[in-house]
Every structure is written in C-alpha cells, then in structure tokens.
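[job 0412] stage=complex_fold ligand=magnesium ion status=START
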Amino acid sequence: MNRLLTLSVLAVIAGTAMAQTTDKQYPEPEKMRPGMSEFWTPQPKVVTPGNQATASAPSDAIVLFDGTNLDAWKSSRTGGAAEWDIHDGVMTVNKQKGDIQTKDDFDSFQLHIEWMVPENITGKSQGRGNSGVFLQGMYEVQILDCYDNETYVNGMTGSIYKQQRPLANVMRKPGEWNVYDIIYTSPVFNEDGTYKVHPKVTVIQNGCVIINDYDIQGTTEYIGFPRVVKHGDGPIVLQSHGDPSEPISFRNIWLRPL
Ligand code: MG
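[job 0412] stage=complex_fold status=DONE, emitting structure tokens
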C-alpha cells in the first residue's frame, strides 16, 4: 500500500513536472528602443589632424568618382541612375533620391573617400551632417559632423555604427574636407550562417587610425543588436540620411581590391 501510494505520488509529481516543462512560459525579450544601444561615454579625445595633400588614385585603383560623373553608381532605391548632384568636381547627397551604391560588388578592399560637411551646417547630435559608408552593403562606417557636436560615441564620426566607437575625434571644421581610408576584410561564414571569421575593418581619418583591425559583430541596426547575415560580395553604399540638416558632399573616391 505504501509502495503504491509512493508510486502514485511520484506519478503525480512526474506528471506535474511534465506539464511544467511543456507549458513553461518564458518572458518575451524587452522591446528594444534606439537609446538602449547608444553609449555616450567615454568620449574619444579630440585630435587636430595634420595637413594632408589630396591623394589621387594609385594606378591599379578602381576609380569610383573622379568629379565628372556617377557612372560607377546606381540608386539603391530604384536600381536606376544615381541622381545625386554633381557640381564643381564633387557630388552632393540628394536627400529626396535616397542612398546610392556602386554597380559593382566587392570582396576585401582598400577604399579612399573624401567628404565635406557644408559650412552652414545646422542641427545637433545625429541630426547634423549624417551620412555613412556601408561596406559590402552591410556594415556602416558613420559619417557625421562631430566637430564641436557630441553624440553617443558608438554613433559618432568613424564609429562602426552602434558597435565600436572611434579611438579619437579627428574632425576637420565644416567647410573643410575629411578623408577616410578604410581597409576591409570580408568575412568567412560557417555552413549554418554564423561567422567563421568576422569581417574586419581599419579606418584612418585624416591620417589617424580611429578604428584598428576591429571584428565587426554583424549588420548595422538602428534599433537592436547587430545580426549575423550570411552574404557574399557587396557594394559600397553611401547613405542619404533623413535628418533635416544640409547635405554633405563627396569627392575623390577610389578602391583597390585586396
Ligand atoms: Mg549614418
């Protein structure tokens, strides 16, 4: 009798345990808000860059923009012509036309790109000269006017947006040209789509290393954390950001496949 009772009790306990296992409820992840992945400290030191001569393209470079036309580019939105404005040997973002991207896709590369915030720029934090360079169309190196304009450090000029802050703030004043030299190594993926080798990036702004051989964690997300998405070769994408400030300009863009 005792044994039977014991068995029945065990059966009831086991049944309850099974019910608990199948019906167990876990909390939903908290809904992400943009500010939950924005970090404001420590702010990188401010460095005044030295003078730099404009670097014309090396003989083996693919020239993506030499001041004359947008033949190497297309609209990310329509796939048709890239309709940013060309004037005086530079191209300026057209905020009505959206992002533009190279027609060609690239694997690993060295990219040289010069950009200028207009002298009359207004706005603050992320709403001041926001653009960006997307590597393989996936990972954003931020462009922003961080000259005397603080924002969250993993969103400032030269950050790997929402991932890695730059080592220094090497901004030139609005109206002066900034230079990025970006060295990018594409990722290797496992069969299941996870990174076997992360994408790596080094960013030099105005002659100073501001991102040093960083392992990119995943896609650029405004809300939430980076995601790992399997991909192959991809374009260089230039961002037409929706902030209301005056649009920035680009010149002298070239790339060397590595
Ligand atoms: Mg941006």
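The first strand starts at residue 45 and ends at 46.
[job 0412] exit 0
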